[in-house]
Design a protein that fits this description.
The complex is a heterodimer of chains A (433) and B (315).
Chain A: E1 23-25, E2 30-34, E3 44-45, E4 52-53, E5 58-61, E6 70-71, E7 76-85, E8 91-99, H1 117-127, H2 139-143, E9 152-156, H3 166-173, H4 175-188, E10 193-199, H5 203-213, E11 219-224, H6 233-241, E12 256-260, H7 261-273, E13 279-285, E14 293-298, H8 303-309, E15 319-322, E16 329-330, E17 344-348, H9 366-370, H10 377-385, H11 389-394, H12 405-409, H13 416-432
Parallel strand pairs in A: 1-14, 9-10, 9-12, 10-11, 13-17
Antiparallel strand pairs in A: 2-8, 3-5, 4-7, 5-6, 7-8, 13-14, 15-16, 15-17
Helix pairs in contact in A: 3-5, 4-7, 10-13
Chain B: H1 18-40, H2 42-65, H3 76-86, H4 94-109, H5 122-133, H6 135-138, H7 168-173, H8 185-197, H9 204-219, H10 234-241, H11 252-272, H12 279-296, H13 309-314
Helix pairs in contact in B: 1-2, 1-3, 1-8, 2-3, 2-4, 3-4, 3-5, 4-5, 5-12, 8-10, 9-10, 9-11, 11-12
Classes of the chains: A alpha/beta (433), B mainly alpha (315).
């Protein structure tokens, strides 16, 4: 472990669902499966209304190299293929499937045969795996590098966002899946040092993973400080290896591959069973939810069905989020489905969704002491307000990962992350001209 | 179904607000204020209360006149008022103090755009105006209640050559003439430690300020370089004035440079200047340098690639 760690902040943990075993929710009536659940080209639908599908049937094929296939999460009938509004504000085609309630698996499902590196990559691609921590980058693309270049494989089990416990449950509840996938990584990246990063307050997960790493050479569990944002990719790389990813480069340029713990667990499951990515462990919590719980839900399950399954709302929800409260994205409505990279759905009542009014910056420097990337958020905001492109570039706006630390600590409650997002957009538009 | 709120992350915020920060500063100033009242009597309390009220009133009236949202709830005007009162001798006529408040709030703060936009410390500006306008009243000191020792007639800084370490206790606890808030070093230290523990300020500026003042006084051959640090307004200025967020640098290195610079100027004025006291001018001069210090000490982003300006121009 590196001696130095990056600046971080303390956020409330609120891991209410940590001790509760996840429950399965299979009785969903209709699933809505968008064709864009990953970074890159959307998948192309290969079914049409009226087709009958089974669990694991391919319904969308990868739309390019940086893309991922999509499978049906239920057995039943395709009702329609329609554009839906995503939380990003854009629309994309989605396959709507009515479940017959039987969850019949597709006949083609069988554990993949892994003979060499290429067959491993092809298996990962066929599984539909994408970065399940939130980014949704197709995993096969990430893994398809010269194994000689890979000095470190970092498993991200930090789970630094408040509320979310789904990664931890994935690690603790099915360790054999993790072990299977880790063994495969050892096989194909023999030179890589595997480091599993977990926040030091998750004792159970650490001990489960140590059971493996203690017996395997060049594999360690690194207990990270329990502060935010340990799970940020560049933060994890620095805090475990001391390496810095240069501006505009990828982790592999620093000799690292970073995989989310849930992604790894899924790859392990796929290698063992051949069942593609059709379910996802989702933390359902927030001030409006009656019974917070981890739910293993079918991909495409609408938010409101999950909450109903858990006993409904105790207060009328005024805000719904994909992901944690620090980086999560607001849902436009409660019909939004569980996506591949959904790790939490949070629902807040009137009081929980209140965002304070911003006031004048008092130049206290709290944001500067909070930023893990050593940026100067208040200066960035100033440059953005002044439309100063050169200054935005000089202050490295593009290195901002929008972790939310600056906005969180700001005593004047300035919407710094919002400003950074606008600044990046502004920079992109300016350079496109 | 009701509409959902759409907003940009983060969706939770810390409990610290501008108002709570200002409140902590007021709490940290209470020991010095109480010490001032104990030392110099009821008049000291009167000046503090009037000054706070005047500052809040000026801010309110100004914002009403120019039709700005009223911001007196952030308590920053109270801090300015209290700091200004702590910077005047206990015998100062009330109307003079109110004129100081007027300059501090309206000229130094509001005309530059209000909280966060002023480039000079408002309380320091108010004090300078009073120093030049009412020099006699601003340098007439009353001795603490019930004391008749050698120290009580003049401020210790003016008679530094007659003092020795035997007087340290009097200096540390403020048993001498001076302005309301600066005398009792013990109370100021208590407030400073509170601010550091509550993470409102970092100790960088006070340590660099006081340390460099002592060092440069020694190098310049000033009388009693260490002992004189405990006399005059050094602790009040270093802990509460120089650390003002708005008018001090934002990076740690910047704060260090700023602190050393202020200490240097203070030593120069104290050793070579006509004034016995140099804190106010040192801080104001420092304030003016802050934008440049900020530019010099800009942080390097993690993984950031910085090309020299010449190279970029060549492209």
């Amino acid at each position: 472990m590196a001696v130095k760690v990056l600046q971080s902040i303390h956020v409330p943990h609120r891991k209410n669902t940590e001790e509760m075993a996840p429950v399965r929710f299979d009785s969903v009536k209709t699933v809505i499966i968008p064709m864009a659940m990953h970074i890159g080209a959307p998948a192309k639908p290969v079914v049409k209304p009226g087709d009958s599908v089974k669990v694991g049937t391919l319904i969308g094929e990868a739309g390019g190299f940086v893309s991922a296939p999509i499978h049906s999460s239920v057995s039943g009938t395709v009702k329609k293929i329609d554009d839906i509004l995503l939380s990003s504000g854009s629309t994309c085609p989605a396959v709507v499937i009515e479940s017959d309630g039987n969850m019949t698996p597709d006949e083609s499902i069988k554990a993949p045969e892994i003979t060499d590196f290429d067959s491993f990559i092809n298996a990962v691609r066929a599984s539909g795996a994408v970065g399940l921590g939130g980014a949704g980058f197709p995993t096969a693309v990430k893994l398809k590098v010269d194994p000689e270049r890979v000095e470190y494989i970092l498993i991200n089990g930090a789970e630094c966002e408040p509320y979310i416990t789904s990664d931890t449950h994935t690690m603790v509840d099915n360790p054999d899946r993790m072990y299977t996938a880790l063994a495969m990584l050892k096989r194909f990246y023999p030179k890589a040092h595997i480091i599993i990063g977990i926040e030091n307050n998750k004792k159970k997960a650490i001990s489960v993973m140590r059971r493996y790493s203690d017996n395997v050479e060049n594999c360690d569990v690194c207990a990270l400080p329990a502060s935010y944002p340990q799970g940020g990719e560049k933060v994890l790389i620095y805090n475990t290896t001391g390496r810095i990813v240069p501006e505009g480069k990828l982790p592999i340029d620093a000799g690292c591959i970073v995989l989310n713990a849930t992604t790894l667990s899924f790859i392990g499951k796929y290698l063992m069973t051949g069942i593609p990515l059709v379910t996802k462990c989702v933390t359902v919590d927030g001030s409006a939810v009656k019974n917070p719980q981890n739910v293993i839900a079918r991909i495409g399950t609408p938010a409101k069905d999950i909450v109903e399954f858990l006993g409904g709302f105790k207060e009328e929800p005024k805000k719904a989020l994909y992901g944690g409260p620090m980086m999560g994205i607001s849902m436009p409505d409660l019909e939004q489905p569980v996506l591949k990279n959904t790790n939490a759905m949070l629902f807040f009542d009137e009081k929980g969704c209140r965002v304070p009014e911003p006031s004048a910056c008092i130049r206290c420097g709290s944001c500067i002491d909070a930023c893990p990337m050593n940026l100067m958020p208040t200066e960035l905001e100033h440059a953005r307000v002044n439309h100063d492109i050169e200054r935005l570039k000089a202050l490295k706006i593009n290195l901002c990962m929008e972790c939310g630390s600056c906005s969180f600590v700001c005593p004047a409650k300035r919407n710094l992350v919002e400003s950074h997002k606008l600044a990046k957009l502004y920079l992109r538009e300016a350079s496109a001209k | 179904m009701s509409k959902l709120t759409l907003s940009v992350s983060p969706h939770i915020r810390s409990s610290r607000t501008t108002r709570s920060v200002m409140l902590e500063v007021i709490i940290a100033l209470l020991p010095a204020t109480i010490a001032g009242v104990v030392l110099y009597g009821f008049r000291a309390l009167l000046l503090c209360v009037i000054s706070c009220c005047a500052c809040v009133l000026f801010e309110f009236v100004y914002e009403k006149i120019v039709k700005l949202p009223v911001t007196i709830g952030d308590l920053s005007a109270v801090v300015t008022g209290l700091l200004l009162a702590l910077n005047v001798p206990p015998g100062l006529p009330v109307w003079m103090l109110i004129i100081g408040d007027l300059f501090a709030i309206v000229v130094a703060k509001m005309l530059f755009g209000g909280l966060g936009c002023n480039f000079m410390n408002p309380a320091m500006v108010g004090r300078i105006v009073m120093m030049f306008s009412f020099t006699a009243a601003m340098t007439t000191f009353t001795p603490p209640q019930g004391t008749v020792d050698a120290l009580s007639s003049a401020t210790p800084l003016a008679v530094m050559d007659t003092l020795s370490w035997a007087n340290f206790k009097d200096l540390f606890f403020g048993l001498h003439s001076g302005v309301i808030g600066e005398s009792c070093v013990a109370a100021l230290l208590l407030g400073g430690i509170y601010l550091c523990i509550r993470k409102i300020i970092k100790p960088i500026i006070p340590l660099c300020f006081i340390g460099s003042c002592i060092l440069f006084s020694f190098l310049f051959g000033g009388t009693q370089p260490v002992l004189s640090a405990f006399a005059g307004g050094l602790f009040l200025g270093a802990i509460f004035m120089a650390t003002d967020y708005v008018t001090s640098p934002i990076t740690n290195w910047g704060k260090a440079i700023f602190g050393v610079f202020c200490g240097f100027i203070t030593a120069v004025i104290r050793v070579f200047g006509n004034y016995t006291e140099g804190i106010t001018f040192a801080i104001i001069l420092g304030n003016i340098l802050v934008p440049y210090i900020n530019d010099l000490t800009r942080k390097k982003a993690l993984g950031g690639i910085y090309t020299k300006p010449g190279k970029e121009a060549a492209k």
